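Below is the record:
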Amino acid sequence: MLELNALLAAALAMTCLALVAWALSFARHNTGIVDSFWGMFFLLGASTYAVALPAAGPRAALLLLLVALWSLRLTAHITVRNWGEPEDRRYQAIRARNQPGYAWKSIYLVFGLQAVLALVVGMPLFAGLSSPAALNLLDGIGVLLWCLGFGFEALGDWQLSRFLADPAMRGKVMDRGLWRYTRHPNYFGEALLWWGFFCIAAAAGAWWTVFAPLCMSFLLLKVSGVALLEKDMAERRPAYREYVARTNAFFPGMPRA
């Protein structure tokens, strides 16, 4: 079972980070700042948890390395992508629905919710960090899934960034590279990566944390990922409907005729 004091310390640290993120969003009138903090919730929570534990095994070092690589890359990518841009349409819609007083309501509607979700989805990290057991084959499978997911996500993000930076591609739909085989390679990679984290936790005996990758997959497919973005894209770009007709939404596959 998880060390309760260490888990409470991690939850407190993540709550403090959420309040810092909210204060920045309040000053800049931009709730979208929370996206830059998403990965940092996990890194801070896992690091705090590891420090609060009385002892840590080899799995702790492995998990901290993996979550640091994922978190820092994602944070840098989102921050650079959103720098100087107006508030994302998603958050503009949330703001419009929750007036008046949205600036204060966003403490729990956006930032508090993100911290809670990160705590829930991060349970495989906390469970794995607390295990003193030696690494085994399932850890290797988890690392393999993590590497595939991380590579898919990072490459997909890089390809899209290059596409958007090319003036000749303005107004067109990204349908090359990994985006030829799935409409959301970054989301697919993210889901795969979290199943990798789960396998590492399961290798430590924490099979009960399976709810975490299931929750992440559901969020990416049905809530804040594919479903929300697809609706927005289809409304703004008619050509996107043709892309939808020939390309898988999530799992990679050959384009349809």
Summary: The chain has eleven helices and no strands. The CA atoms of residues 171 and 237 lie 8 Å apart. The chain has two domains: 1-134, 136-257. The mean pLDDT is 90.
